[in-house]
Protein backbone atom coordinates (compact mmCIF):
# COMPACT_ATOMS: atom_id res chain seq x y z
CA UNK A 1 0.00 0.00 0.00
CA UNK A 2 1.36 3.43 -0.83
CA UNK A 3 -1.32 5.31 1.13
CA UNK A 4 -1.90 4.65 4.81
CA UNK A 5 -5.60 5.33 4.25
CA UNK A 6 -7.24 5.79 7.65
CA UNK A 7 -4.87 3.53 9.60
CA UNK A 8 -2.64 5.08 12.29
CA UNK A 9 0.19 2.86 13.58
CA UNK A 10 0.84 2.72 17.33
CA UNK A 11 2.34 0.29 19.86
CA UNK A 12 1.43 -0.95 23.32
CA UNK A 13 2.17 -4.48 24.59
CA UNK A 14 -1.34 -5.04 25.97
CA UNK A 15 -4.92 -5.80 25.00
CA UNK A 16 -7.55 -3.14 24.29
CA UNK A 17 -10.23 -2.31 26.83
CA UNK A 18 -12.48 -1.13 24.02
CA UNK A 19 -15.20 -3.65 23.12
CA UNK A 20 -15.21 -2.33 19.52
CA UNK A 21 -11.49 -3.07 19.00
CA UNK A 22 -10.52 -5.02 15.88
CA UNK A 23 -8.80 -8.31 16.76
CA UNK A 24 -6.27 -9.72 14.26
CA UNK A 25 -5.84 -13.36 15.42
CA UNK A 26 -2.86 -15.33 14.12
CA UNK A 27 -2.00 -19.00 14.58
CA UNK A 28 1.69 -18.93 13.81
CA UNK A 29 2.02 -16.74 10.71
CA UNK A 30 -1.55 -17.38 9.56
CA UNK A 31 -4.37 -14.86 9.96
CA UNK A 32 -7.71 -16.36 10.96
CA UNK A 33 -10.84 -15.12 9.21
CA UNK A 34 -14.49 -16.13 9.45
CA UNK A 35 -16.74 -17.62 6.77
CA UNK A 36 -17.44 -14.12 5.38
CA UNK A 37 -13.68 -13.50 4.92
CA UNK A 38 -13.82 -10.94 7.75
CA UNK A 39 -11.99 -10.61 11.06
CA UNK A 40 -13.58 -13.01 13.58
CA UNK A 41 -15.46 -11.85 16.66
CA UNK A 42 -13.64 -12.26 19.97
CA UNK A 43 -15.87 -15.20 20.97
CA UNK A 44 -14.78 -17.13 17.86
CA UNK A 45 -11.16 -17.35 19.10
CA UNK A 46 -11.93 -17.99 22.79
CA UNK A 47 -11.40 -21.74 22.34
CA UNK A 48 -7.69 -21.01 21.71
CA UNK A 49 -7.15 -19.80 25.30
CA UNK A 50 -4.50 -17.23 26.19
CA UNK A 51 -2.35 -16.06 23.28
CA UNK A 52 1.43 -16.26 23.24
CA UNK A 53 1.58 -12.51 22.63
CA UNK A 54 -0.97 -9.67 22.62
CA UNK A 55 -0.23 -6.14 21.47
CA UNK A 56 -2.05 -3.06 20.22
CA UNK A 57 -0.49 -1.94 16.96
CA UNK A 58 -2.60 0.99 15.79
CA UNK A 59 -6.07 2.32 15.13
CA UNK A 60 -8.29 2.12 12.09
CA UNK A 61 -10.81 4.97 11.80
CA UNK A 62 -10.59 5.33 15.60
CA UNK A 63 -10.96 1.61 16.40
CA UNK A 64 -8.01 0.08 18.20
CA UNK A 65 -6.28 -2.77 16.36
CA UNK A 66 -5.02 -5.68 18.45
CA UNK A 67 -2.70 -8.47 17.35
CA UNK A 68 -3.05 -11.83 19.13
CA UNK A 69 -0.63 -14.61 18.25
CA UNK A 70 -0.99 -18.27 19.20
CA UNK A 71 1.64 -20.99 18.60
CA UNK A 72 1.61 -22.51 15.13
CA UNK A 73 0.65 -25.97 16.48
CA UNK A 74 -2.77 -24.71 17.74
CA UNK A 75 -5.84 -26.09 15.95
CA UNK A 76 -7.97 -23.68 13.94
CA UNK A 77 -11.25 -23.08 15.87
CA UNK A 78 -14.52 -24.27 14.32
CA UNK A 79 -16.02 -21.85 11.78
CA UNK A 80 -12.71 -20.10 11.05
CA UNK A 81 -10.19 -20.49 8.27
CA UNK A 82 -6.79 -19.12 7.23
CA UNK A 83 -6.91 -15.86 5.27
CA UNK A 84 -4.38 -15.07 2.58
CA UNK A 85 -3.25 -11.50 1.99
CA UNK A 86 -3.27 -11.91 -1.80
CA UNK A 87 -6.88 -13.09 -1.85
CA UNK A 88 -7.98 -10.36 0.59
CA UNK A 89 -6.58 -7.73 -1.79
CA UNK A 90 -9.47 -6.25 -3.69
CA UNK A 91 -11.87 -7.60 -1.08
CA UNK A 92 -10.83 -5.62 2.02
CA UNK A 93 -10.69 -1.80 2.08
CA UNK A 94 -7.24 -0.14 1.91
CA UNK A 95 -7.15 0.85 5.59
CA UNK A 96 -7.83 -2.69 6.76
CA UNK A 97 -5.17 -4.06 4.39
CA UNK A 98 -2.66 -1.52 5.68
CA UNK A 99 -3.41 -2.71 9.22
CA UNK A 100 -3.06 -6.33 8.10
CA UNK A 101 0.38 -5.69 6.55
CA UNK A 102 1.59 -4.39 9.91
CA UNK A 103 -0.15 -7.15 11.89
CA UNK A 104 1.35 -9.90 9.72
CA UNK A 105 4.90 -8.56 10.01
CA UNK A 106 4.59 -8.10 13.77
CA UNK A 107 3.17 -11.64 14.15
CA UNK A 108 6.23 -13.09 12.41
CA UNK A 109 8.50 -10.88 14.51
CA UNK A 110 7.09 -11.95 17.91
CA UNK A 111 7.00 -15.62 16.85
CA UNK A 112 10.67 -15.60 15.83
CA UNK A 113 11.84 -13.75 18.93
CA UNK A 114 10.40 -15.71 21.84
CA UNK A 115 13.94 -16.46 23.02
CA UNK A 116 17.05 -14.28 23.13
CA UNK A 117 19.43 -14.88 20.23
CA UNK A 118 22.38 -13.88 22.45
CA UNK A 119 21.79 -15.85 25.69
CA UNK A 120 18.75 -18.08 25.04
CA UNK A 121 16.53 -16.70 27.81
CA UNK A 122 12.80 -15.92 27.19
CA UNK A 123 12.21 -12.47 25.63
CA UNK A 124 9.47 -10.01 26.64
CA UNK A 125 7.79 -7.15 24.77
CA UNK A 126 9.25 -3.79 25.79
CA UNK A 127 6.78 -1.49 27.58
CA UNK A 128 8.32 1.65 26.05
CA UNK A 129 9.31 0.91 22.44
CA UNK A 130 8.46 -1.60 19.75
CA UNK A 131 11.11 -4.15 20.67
CA UNK A 132 11.47 -7.68 22.00
CA UNK A 133 13.92 -7.38 24.91
CA UNK A 134 15.86 -9.89 26.99
CA UNK A 135 15.52 -9.28 30.76
CA UNK A 136 18.67 -11.34 31.36
CA UNK A 137 21.20 -9.63 29.06
CA UNK A 138 19.42 -6.56 27.63
CA UNK A 139 19.56 -7.68 23.99
CA UNK A 140 16.85 -6.03 21.85
CA UNK A 141 15.27 -7.06 18.58
CA UNK A 142 13.22 -4.54 16.61
CA UNK A 143 10.77 -5.65 13.89
CA UNK A 144 12.85 -6.85 10.97
CA UNK A 145 12.53 -5.02 7.64
CA UNK A 146 14.25 -6.47 4.56
CA UNK A 147 14.77 -3.92 1.76
CA UNK A 148 14.21 -5.07 -1.82
CA UNK A 149 15.15 -2.93 -4.85
CA UNK A 150 12.67 -3.26 -7.72
CA UNK A 151 13.30 -1.63 -11.09
CA UNK A 152 11.31 -0.91 -14.21
CA UNK A 153 13.84 -0.56 -17.03
CA UNK A 154 12.88 1.55 -20.03
CA UNK A 155 14.30 1.32 -23.58
CA UNK A 156 12.49 3.72 -25.93
CA UNK A 157 8.85 2.63 -25.96
CA UNK A 158 9.64 -0.77 -24.43
CA UNK A 159 10.01 -1.96 -20.83
CA UNK A 160 11.83 -4.98 -19.39
CA UNK A 161 9.54 -7.50 -17.68
CA UNK A 162 10.29 -10.97 -16.37
CA UNK A 163 8.47 -13.92 -14.89
CA UNK A 164 9.41 -16.29 -12.11
CA UNK A 165 8.23 -19.90 -12.10
CA UNK A 166 5.84 -19.19 -9.17
CA UNK A 167 3.97 -16.35 -10.96
CA UNK A 168 0.38 -16.76 -12.14
CA UNK A 169 0.19 -18.12 -15.72
CA UNK A 170 1.23 -15.51 -18.30
CA UNK A 171 2.06 -12.83 -15.73
CA UNK A 172 5.21 -10.72 -16.04
CA UNK A 173 6.54 -8.11 -13.62
CA UNK A 174 9.52 -5.87 -12.88
CA UNK A 175 12.76 -7.46 -11.70
CA UNK A 176 13.65 -7.19 -8.02
CA UNK A 177 16.21 -8.40 -5.52
CA UNK A 178 17.17 -8.18 -1.84
CA UNK A 179 19.63 -5.48 -0.83
CA UNK A 180 22.81 -7.10 0.49
CA UNK A 181 24.85 -6.03 3.52
CA UNK A 182 26.84 -2.88 2.78
CA UNK A 183 24.98 -2.13 -0.44
CA UNK A 184 22.78 0.84 -1.40
CA UNK A 185 19.39 0.23 -3.04
CA UNK A 186 20.76 1.72 -6.29
CA UNK A 187 23.83 -0.53 -6.24
CA UNK A 188 21.57 -3.51 -5.56
CA UNK A 189 19.40 -2.76 -8.58
CA UNK A 190 22.40 -2.38 -10.90
CA UNK A 191 23.83 -5.69 -9.62
CA UNK A 192 20.49 -7.51 -9.94
CA UNK A 193 20.05 -6.34 -13.55
CA UNK A 194 23.53 -7.52 -14.39
CA UNK A 195 23.05 -10.91 -12.65
CA UNK A 196 19.46 -11.69 -13.63
CA UNK A 197 19.16 -9.99 -17.03
CA UNK A 198 22.76 -9.49 -18.18
CA UNK A 199 22.34 -5.75 -18.82
CA UNK A 200 23.73 -2.47 -17.53
CA UNK A 201 21.31 0.33 -16.55
CA UNK A 202 21.67 4.05 -15.75
CA UNK A 203 19.64 7.19 -14.90
CA UNK A 204 17.97 5.61 -11.85
CA UNK A 205 14.98 7.67 -10.61
CA UNK A 206 13.39 6.89 -7.24
CA UNK A 207 9.68 6.13 -7.69
CA UNK A 208 8.32 5.09 -4.28
CA UNK A 209 8.25 2.31 -1.72
CA UNK A 210 5.77 -0.25 -0.46
CA UNK A 211 5.62 -2.52 2.56
CA UNK A 212 5.23 -6.14 1.51
CA UNK A 213 4.55 -8.75 4.20
CA UNK A 214 6.33 -11.78 2.67
CA UNK A 215 7.41 -11.90 5.34
CA UNK A 216 8.92 -8.47 6.07
CA UNK A 217 10.05 -6.77 2.84
CA UNK A 218 10.17 -3.10 1.96
CA UNK A 219 9.99 -2.72 -1.82
CA UNK A 220 12.02 0.31 -3.02
CA UNK A 221 11.03 1.18 -6.56
CA UNK A 222 13.15 2.83 -9.28
CA UNK A 223 12.57 3.60 -12.92
CA UNK A 224 15.82 3.41 -14.90
CA UNK A 225 17.07 3.48 -18.49
CA UNK A 226 18.73 0.64 -20.38
CA UNK A 227 22.41 1.30 -21.00
CA UNK A 228 24.01 -1.73 -22.68
CA UNK A 229 24.24 -5.52 -22.88
CA UNK A 230 22.31 -8.44 -24.34
CA UNK A 231 19.31 -9.79 -22.43
CA UNK A 232 20.30 -13.06 -20.77
CA UNK A 233 17.97 -14.64 -18.20
CA UNK A 234 19.53 -16.13 -15.08
CA UNK A 235 18.39 -19.74 -15.32
CA UNK A 236 17.72 -20.45 -11.64
CA UNK A 237 15.38 -17.57 -10.84
CA UNK A 238 13.97 -16.29 -14.13
CA UNK A 239 11.70 -18.39 -16.34
CA UNK A 240 11.53 -15.77 -19.10
CA UNK A 241 12.27 -12.10 -19.64
CA UNK A 242 11.83 -9.78 -22.60
CA UNK A 243 11.38 -6.21 -23.79
CA UNK A 244 7.65 -5.49 -24.14
CA UNK A 245 6.13 -2.63 -26.11
CA UNK A 246 4.06 -0.40 -23.81
CA UNK A 247 1.06 -0.79 -26.13
CA UNK A 248 1.36 -4.60 -26.12
CA UNK A 249 1.95 -5.79 -22.55
CA UNK A 250 1.42 -9.29 -21.11
CA UNK A 251 -0.66 -10.08 -17.99
CA UNK A 252 0.46 -7.61 -15.35
CA UNK A 253 0.77 -7.69 -11.56
CA UNK A 254 -2.03 -6.57 -9.23
CA UNK A 255 -3.07 -2.86 -9.63
CA UNK A 256 -2.14 -2.10 -6.01
CA UNK A 257 1.42 -3.45 -6.41
CA UNK A 258 4.37 -1.08 -6.75
CA UNK A 259 5.43 -2.83 -9.99
CA UNK A 260 2.06 -2.14 -11.59
CA UNK A 261 2.09 1.47 -10.42
CA UNK A 262 5.49 1.96 -12.08
CA UNK A 263 4.27 0.37 -15.31
CA UNK A 264 1.20 2.66 -15.39
CA UNK A 265 3.39 5.69 -14.63
CA UNK A 266 5.76 4.97 -17.53
CA UNK A 267 2.94 4.05 -19.90
CA UNK A 268 1.13 7.35 -19.24
CA UNK A 269 4.29 9.33 -20.08
CA UNK A 270 5.60 7.45 -23.13
CA UNK A 271 4.47 8.07 -26.68
CA UNK A 272 3.56 4.86 -28.53
ZN1 LIG B 1 19.68 -12.40 26.45
Summary of the model, kept short:
The protein has four helices and 15 strands. It is of the alpha+beta class and 272 residues long. The chain is globular, with a radius of gyration of 21 Å.
- Helix % is 10-25%
CATH class of the largest domain: Alpha Beta
List the total number of helices: 4
Could you give the distance between the termini?
Answer: 29 Å
String of helices and strands: EEEEEEHHEEEEEEHEEEH
By CATH, the architecture of the largest domain is named: Alpha-Beta Complex
Structure description:
The strands form 3 sheets. The protein has a 6-stranded mixed sheet with strand order 1-4-5-2-3-6. Strands 10, 11, 12, 13, 14 and 15 form a 6-stranded mixed sheet that branches. Strands 7-8-9 form a 3-stranded antiparallel sheet, with no helix packed on it. It has 2 domains: 7-112, Nucleoside Triphosphate Pyrophosphohydrolase, CATH 3.90.79; 146-269, Nucleoside Triphosphate Pyrophosphohydrolase (Alpha-Beta Complex), CATH 3.90.79. With 272 residues, the chain is α+β, with helices and mostly antiparallel strands. The model has no long low-confidence stretch (mean pLDDT 93). It has helices at 85-88, 94-112, 185-197, 258-269, and strands at residues 7-12, 22-27, 30-33, 53-60, 63-70, 81-83, 124-125, 132-133, 140-141, 146-155, 158-163, 175-178, 200-212, 217-228, 240-245. A hairpin with a 2-residue loop joins β4 (53-60) and β5. The radius of gyration is 21 Å and the shape is globular. It binds zinc ion. The site of zinc ion has 8 residues, from loops.
